[in-house]
Amino acid sequence: MDKRALIGIALSIFVLVVYQQLVNYYYPTPVTVPAPVDVKSAGEKTAEQGTAPRTPSAPAPTPPATAPVEIPTGQSAKEITVETDNYLAVFTTHGARLKSFKLKKFRTSAEPTSPLFEIVTTAPGIPLPLGVRLQGATPVDDGAVNYAVHGGDLKLTGDGKGNLAFQGQTASGTVITKSLTFTGANYSIGLEVGAKGADGSVQAAEVLLTDKSDHAVANHDAPFEGFIALVDNKIKREAPADALTGHEFSGDVSWAGFGHTYFFIALLPDNGAQHKVSVRQTGAALTSAITGPAGNGRYTLFVGPKEIDLLESVGKGMERSIDFGYFGFVSKPLLYVLHFFHRLTSSYGLDIIILTVLIKLLMWPLTHKSMVSMKSMSKLAPQMEKLKEKFGDDKEKLNREIMEL
């Protein structure tokens, strides 16, 4: 390696180290403080969200309107807060749905006082996620069902586990249950859903994830990618505009959900065989519905960052939700190497320097050979100029002489 290359590497290291120190000084690591939950305003919005337009589960002609379900009088919605090492979640008994999910280690901007990143979209016409829809002549969802809840607020750390169990009944007498299991250190949440008719029959229940359909105003902190699923070991990606007509996929469903550039919310069936998943836009809502054979459906709900090591630990090919593009065979190994160095240095600035030096060393044999070849050619340059002067009018003779030289 020549002297100029060594000086260039040294200067690069110096600049990046100084830059890293300046970044740490002006943008210190934000303190994780959960944002307060406005219980009063949340209760006022619950009724509006619970009666949002229903979304059909298949791209076929629009099914009949959902049958209305009356809310039992004298009952008000209750909110349950679940706090772990990674997130602060709020569930409401009005539909037994996820009302808020804030990631404690991520904020909406670089400002240390900015709010925690919220994955759940709350807006008029957009039902909350984790709804259940029962199929039949007139599809019914549980958006207006008031559930009883077994369990209260949870605060979990490390390996600590906690449970919540919701049970509600539709106007037709169908009993719907939703059971969730939380772990302090994990983003994954266990989910079991069941539906039993008034006559004792077991029914198949669709589980719904929702988001807003209009992403014309981009979220620069976490751009929305749309619907992503892994069905029969093939990635399915649908932008919001593509979901307008509706699409349905059947087969072995590994997982399905909505992706942002840096975050992901998805449902993973414990056994995805003979399942189907659909995505459809209805008004302001974009809905993904996943269902399997009749009986209790067991799922894993994942809501968290799209970090490759974390996604691989969840399993079922979740890391494939990250779009590495056409050059994934190159960028993915480099990402693993970068993460390896980060465990040692805790500084991405130094990690990039080390990775750059490593690539330079690996490419040095080719670089050296190329430099030797260039120097050899430079020695022949005067003789080639003489040949051009001598045989400039005869191209064939000139090429032959150059090859002999």
Folded structure, characterized:
There is one protein chain. Strand 14 (about 225-230) and strand 15 (about 235-240) form a beta hairpin. About 30% of the residues are buried. The radius of gyration is 29 Å and the shape is elongated. With about 400 residues, the chain is an alpha+beta fold. Strands 7, 9, 10, 11, 12, 14, 15, 17, 18 and 21 form a 10-stranded antiparallel sheet that branches. It has 2 domains: about 1-30 and about 325-405, no CATH class; about 40-325, Beta-galactosidase, Chain A, domain 5. Helix 1 (about 5-25) runs antiparallel to helix 5 and helix 4 packs across helix 5 (about 350-390). It starts with a helix and ends with a helix. It contains 6 helices and 21 strands. It has helices spanning about 5-25, 40-50, 310-315, 330-345, 350-390, 395-405; strands at about 80-85, 85-90, 95-105, 115-120, 130-135, 140, 150, 155, 160-170, 175-185, 190-195, 200-205, 205-210, 225-230, 235-240, 245-250, 255-260, 265-270, 275-280, 285-290, 295-305. Mean pLDDT is about 80; it is low at about 25-75.
Gist?
The chain has helices at 3-26, 39-50, 308-314, 328-345, 348-391, 395-404, and strands spanning 79-83, 87-92, 97-107, 116-118, 131-134, 140-141, 148-150, 154-155, 161-169, 175-183, 188-196, 202-203, 205-212, 224-231, 234-238, 247-251, 253-260, 263-269, 275-282, 285-291, 297-305.
Q: Could you list some keywords that capture this structure?
A:
405 residues; alpha+beta; Beta-galactosidase, Chain A, domain 5; ten-stranded antiparallel sheet; six-stranded antiparallel sheet; 6 helices; 32% strand; elongated
